[in-house]
Amino acid sequence: MAEPTNTPVPASTPRSASPVHPGGPNTPIVPIMMTSSLPPTTSSPSSHSRQPSYHHRPRVLHIGDPVRYNPATYIALCGQCEVIRPSAPERERGEFIRALRERRWGDFHAVLRPFWGSGGEMGNWDEELISLLPPSVRVFASAGAGFDWADTKLLGERGIIYCNSGLACAEAVADFAVAMIISTFRHLPWCIGAASSGDPAAFATCHRDATARSHNLRGHVLGIVGLGNVGQQIAARCRHGFGMEIHYYDVAAISPDVESALGGVIARHPSLESLIRASDCVVLCAPAAPGGTSARPLIGTEQLSWFSDGGRLVNVARGSLVDDEAVADALEAGKLLSAALDVHPNEPHVSARLRALAVAGRVMLSCHNAGGTVETHRGFEELSMRNVMAVLSGGNPITPVNLEYLR
Fold this sequence. Notes:
Layout: E1 59-62, H1 71-80, E2 82-84, H2 88-91, H3 93-101, E3 110-113, H4 127-130, E4 139-142, H5 152-157, E5 161-163, H6 166-186, H7 188-196, H8 200-209, E6 221-225, H9 229-242, E7 245-249, H10 256-261, E8 267-268, H11 272-278, E9 281-284, H12 301-304, E10 311-315, H13 324-333, E11 336-341, H14 352-359, E12 363-365, H15 374-392
Parallel strand pairs: 1-2, 1-3, 3-4, 4-5, 6-7, 6-9, 7-8, 9-10, 10-11, 11-12
């Protein structure tokens, strides 16, 4: 079967670590050989996996829309497992809880959500839902990079490996992030808005004044919060393509091989404050707290005070990491020269103050689009299904995020 199209920076190890909420390293993607029966004839499970024993084929609860991009992989999954897909009404939280309580789907062994746009009708996977899962469940594999809607710690304590699909969207998010970084240095919202207004005076003013505020990227310091899969790809693009200096803040230091692949000396900072104070532009690539339990945003009034006057902020991670009102304050006060935000705390609603600033050309706003490509969706499906098949056949999960909590 085809490999996911997005791959990490050469010499790097795919992972889901966060500078705020540490996670364990992930196993690099490798081809998984499919067999017609379970368990496979040869298997070398790691300490995180165990040889399964089934009287019948393992049962997979497929929540969400049908698989649309990887039919061959889905056929392989159905050949190994009994796949059950609840109807849309059954996925609404009240009915979903009722179905779990009455064991409507029996003792299933995996939860599969291969498409990010559906399968989440039941809302957050919190203690109420997780406590109702049968003891047979061993893996929950989902499309998407973020997992703040699922209590991955509680899942791990129940013996359930949670696997995300962040590796599949890393390339798309990195491309989009670079466009947003460029926007903060070149004031693209102002330029686009003035040209689109049809107002000759607005055109002339932008043509004259934007140049006095715009800068080349070369030589400027890009501070990356979270140097995982996405962060490394952003670093590679901005270092090799634009000659930026790369600084980062993360719980884990990158290896010398990864540093070499990223273009040489990469400065690691001991704290978020240290990184922000040293950076001309800060880009957020860190996941939010597991289970959505973050008590306060990562970037608020205090953190914005650490930016040098005229600093720049980019967020392609999670909306909950940023206090939008504090960002609006910083933009209005001139503390931030510009910002670019793809994600928002209360999606699909966007801060009215930020929308007004976007009209004025001070901030670039988008609709959680950074990872949204056909290639990403194809990779989400492929990776989520392969995670399920790997675990249920006694092998290693490909992209786990909660092994440190696993009992």
